[in-house]
Each structure stands twice: as C-alpha cells, then as structure tokens.
Specification:
It is a multi-pass membrane protein. Its main location: membrane. Belongs to the RETICULATA family. The protein has 375 residues and is an all-alpha fold. The protein has a domain of 182 residues. The chain has a two-stranded antiparallel ribbon. The protein is elongated and about 75 Å long.
Length: 375
C-alpha cells in the first residue's frame, strides 16, 4: 500500500539514522514470512534510534499497531507522531506494518518511513525504484539529505574544477564538461548508496522453502547472497552483534563494490569523452583537443582502485561518525543542527578526497597534463 502526502517535513526535514539496520536489500524475497524476534539477538534486527529519531536498540513487541492500548510507550509515541503529521496506518506498506506487529522492527523504522513518505522526492524514490533504495530510507531519514549534499557538492566542485582548467574554452568544450560531470555524479551516488545502513527485510523474514528450493540454496550464488545479507552495511554498524570477521569482510566487500562502480563510471566517462573528441575531429579537422585521448582500461582501473580504497575507507569513517558521534553530540539538538553537521562533515570529506584523487591521478598518470598534444 503506497503512502500519500502528509503534513510536516520539508526537503531536509529529517533526524538521525536509526541504528537497528542491516546491509544490502536489493534482492529481498518478498514472499518470505515473518519470524518473531529472538530475545538473544538471533538473526533478526530491530530499528534503533539515534538522536531524537526514536527508539534505541530495543525491540517493539506491540502485538497490533492498530490497538491503542497502554502496553508500549513506544507505540503510543509512534501513534502521536503519526497523528501530528496527518499520517495513518493504512498508508504504511503491509510488509513494514507486519514487521512492526511481529516485533521485528522498532517504532524508529516506522517513523523513518513516515519521514520519507512526507517528502515528494523521497516518496517517489521509495515507491518507484528498487527495493534497496526503500530499505535505506527505512534505516536513515537523513538518506535523501545525504544524497543531495553529496550530489550538490559534486556538481559545484566539478564545475569549479572544469572552469579553472578550461577558462575561456569552458562553453566551447561544454560537451567534455558534461561527460566528466556525468561520471562524477554517478560515482557520488554510489558513494552514498553502498555504505549506507539499510533495513533488510530479507534478513528479518523466515523463509518457508520447499525441498527443491532448499537444495538450490546450496549454490554458490545463494551462499554468497546469504553471506552478504548477514554483513553490516558498514564497519561501525551496531544494530546487532557482528563478529570482527564480519566487519572485516564488510570493509573488503564494500571496497570491491566501489571498485566495480568506479571502474564502470570511469569507463563510461572516458568512452564518452573519447567519442566526443573523435566526432569533433571528424567535423572539424583543425580541432586540437587540449588533452590526448585517455586509455579506457587503464583509467578505469585507476579510478576503480581510488574509489574502492580511498573513497571506500573515507565513507566508512563518515558513516561511523554519523552513527556513533553525532547522536552523542547532537541527540537533543534541532534537526537543522544535525543537517548542518552532516553537510560540514561531508564537505570536508569531499575536499579531502579531491586532493587525494589529484595526487593519485598525477602519480599513476591516469590524467594527462593539460599541455599534452592530441594524438
């Protein structure tokens, strides 16, 4: 059941990310049935709350969210929260409502859904894209804010750098600028998306599989999928007890993901730029590009290595600060203060990363000197 608009939050109206989350949710099985929460932490997770987002790492055991009894103060607070935003239970998707009824997620996760549904853009992303997107909004009501911050910083930073290099040729070479900007925007989105916490409904459900399905689950793809779903989304996640091996595996898994995305983004950008150079030379034999054509394979590998190791490590640290430090420092502060702190943290990270990429590109030769002649 899809949510409709409601009164309340604006574009940046969000609180701290919830702690009761798990990793990747892009291929969850929607037909699995719910299992009750285990008292010892078990396999199921609940939504925690950082700051004023509600909850902690406790479980909600309210048997029915439609019942306004007095056996759960969290549930009463959730009902009041929803009433204040003209939101009702019939606007909550069935899987989220059922998970809350079964005690698999806390009120904080439901609140995160309400925050997202109150925003037209985040509501569109939750309802009309892939499952993993919605599961990140369920885990973090600052997720849209972080996307906008990273993409905004990326656009401003990239355009400034392009103008500094091209100066009077900026508009004459706007096609090259666009190709480079496209690569940067795709990479920036990946850097927000992949390390972000998520409420993985697949992990929260117990599967009723037939004998044939159980046999097929022994394949390496099924085993890999199960292994990655039980990882934290980032090294510093604390929604449940993870082993050091799981945290270490999470780091290297995210490095591999970002390497793949970085290499693909670079390949797209370089191929597009080289195509533009070829087309211009064909249309204007006198055209002399400032830089020679880049080698697609080498540049893609170097950018993939940079995105995986440098960016992957930095964004793990950024998420760790947002999960652990911000709730302690800003737990009782207005939401605007949290948004400003998030912006400053990510601006500093972007600036630092730009310096690292410039040094890495010069060291490896991934970017040629601006004085080089075209081939």
């Amino acid at each position: 059941m899809h949510a409709r608009g409601c009164a309340g939050e604006g574009w940046l109206g969000a609180q701290q990310p919830c702690a009761g989350v798990n990793s990747e949710g892009m291929d969850a099985d929607a037909d699995e049935t719910l299992e009750p929460v285990r008292e010892n932490g078990g396999d199921s997770t609940g939504g925690g709350g950082g700051g004023s987002g509600g909850g902690g790492n406790h479980r909600s055991r309210r048997p029915d969210p439609h019942d306004d009894g007095d056996d759960s103060s969290d549930h009463d607070d959730l009902n009041e929260f929803m009433r204040s935003r003209a939101f009702s239970w019939d606007k909550i998707p069935a899987d989220v409502s059922n998970a809350f009824r079964a005690g698999l997620i806390t009120a904080a996760v439901v609140k995160n859904y309400v925050y997202g549904a109150c925003n037209p853009l985040s509501r569109f992303l939750m309802e009309h894209t892939w499952r993993g997107m919605r599961e990140r909004f369920l885990a973090d009501n600052l997720f849209l804010t972080k996307i906008l911050i990273e993409e905004g910083l990326g656009i401003c930073g990239k355009l400034s750098a392009e103008y500094e290099v091209r100066r009077g040729r900026f508009f004459d070479e706007i096609d090259f600028v666009f190709a480079n900007l496209l690569m940067a925007l795709l990479a920036d989105f990946a850097l927000v998306y992949f390390p972000a916490p998520s409420v993985n409904m697949a992990v929260l459900r117990g599967a009723k599989r037939s004998a044939g399905a159980a046999a097929s689950s022994s394949s390496w793809r099924q085993a890999l999928s199960k292994w990655t779903r039980n990882m934290p989304s980032n090294v510093f996640q604390v929604d449940r007890a993870y082993t050091m091996q799981q945290r270490a595996a999470c780091y290297f898994y995210k490095v591999a993901q970002l390497f793949t995305v970085g290499a693909a983004c670079a390949a797209i950008g370089v191929a597009l730029t080289n195509t533009i150079i070829t087309a211009r030379q064909w249309l204007d034999p006198g055209f002399a590009p400032r830089n020679p054509k880049s080698d697609i394979v080498f540049t893609s590998l170097m950018y993939g290595v940079f995105l995986g190791i440098s960016s992957g490590t930095r964004y793990q640290l950024v998420n760790g600060i947002e999960i652990h430090l911000f709730p302690r420092l800003l737990g009782k502060a207005p939401r605007l203060a949290t948004g400003i702190a998030t912006y400053l943290l990510r601006w500093g990270n972007t600036f630092w990363g730009s310096q690292q990429w410039a040094m890495w590109a010069m060291f490896t030769g991934a970017q040629k000197s601006g004085n080089a002649k075209a081939e």
